[in-house]
């Protein structure tokens, strides 16, 4: 049972825009802790996609963006491409766990 | 560009101890980063196991704390994980990762290694 809640799956057609939500609580996102996002392609290790709520590491396309508000955060992917089909995870710090917390992950299917 | 590589037995017997090592290349383990272990049961989500700083300071997931030990070997530029009293529920892909700050984002990951707990 993850302290950060993500939808199990989302889908979209090529070229469309999709969003993935990450809902937390007052012990994590709502307490002001930063949210980070990872992309995990099939059979590979997670890759950092967004750090500190909305920052993209070098090499990540600007089709990926993220925001945070209140006790939630969201990842948006525009101009959906087949190569975006992957699992996406949000991550934050949780004070009740005194450590790192991951969302349960969202599987993105490109139709 | 730092690279991380996990190594260790792929099969551990129930009630035994899981031991993994993460070799760091392209950077120093004594840099101002935190070094973590994250695991992922096949087909499931990510779980943070804990982190260690080069000074030896550690922070463990409370749910695993009683069974986890992490250590650093500066001479070999690597860090290690031991998980005791394993059961089938500890079967997972184990990843080592570099954290920019304590309990913060992970900017580099190893490729992962599958550890199966079975007799």
Describe what you observe in this structure:
The complex is a heterodimer of chains A (111) and B (119). With 111 residues, chain A is mostly beta strands. Chain A is built from no helices and nine strands. In chain B, the strands form two sheets. In chain B, strands 2, 4, 5, 6, 9, 10 and 11 form a seven-stranded mixed sheet that branches. Chain B has strands spanning 3-7, 11-12, 18-25, 34-40, 47-52, 58-60, 68-73, 78-83, 92-99, 106-109, 113-117. The N and C termini of chain B lie far apart (39 Å). The relative contact order of chain B is 0.32. With 119 residues, chain B is mostly beta strands. In chain B, strand 7 and strand 8 (78-83) form a beta hairpin. Chain B is built from no helices and eleven strands. Helix content of chain B is 0%, strand content 50%.
Features:
heterodimer; A: 111 residues; mainly beta; six-stranded mixed sheet; three-stranded antiparallel sheet; globular; B: 119 residues; four-stranded antiparallel sheet
What's the gist of this structure?
The complex is a heterodimer of chains A (111) and B (119). Chain A is mainly beta and 111 residues long.
* SS-derived structural category of chain A: mainly beta
Number of helices of chain A: 0
- Helix content bin of chain A: under 10%
End-to-end separation of chain A in angstroms reads 29 Å
Q: What sort of overall outline of chain A do the alpha carbons produce when their principal axes are compared? A: globular
Averaged pLDDT of chain B: 96
Shape call of chain B: globular
Strand percentage of chain B lies at over 45%
Greatest chain-chain interface?
A-B, 24 and 23 residues
Number of helices of chain B: 0
Uncertain spans of chain A, ≥5 residues at pLDDT below 50?
A: none
The largest sheet of chain A is: 6 strands, mixed
DSSP summary, beta strand count of chain A: 9
Class derived from helix and strand content of chain B: mainly beta
| Rg from alpha-carbon coordinates of chain B | 13 Å
* Tally of strands of chain B: 11
Give a quick account of the main beta sheet of chain B: strands, pairing sense, barrel closure: 7 strands, mixed
Oligomer: heterodimer
- Give the proportion of residues in helices of chain B: under 10%
Radius of gyration of chain A: 13 Å
Give the topology string of chain A: H per helix, E per strand.
Answer: EEEEEEEEE
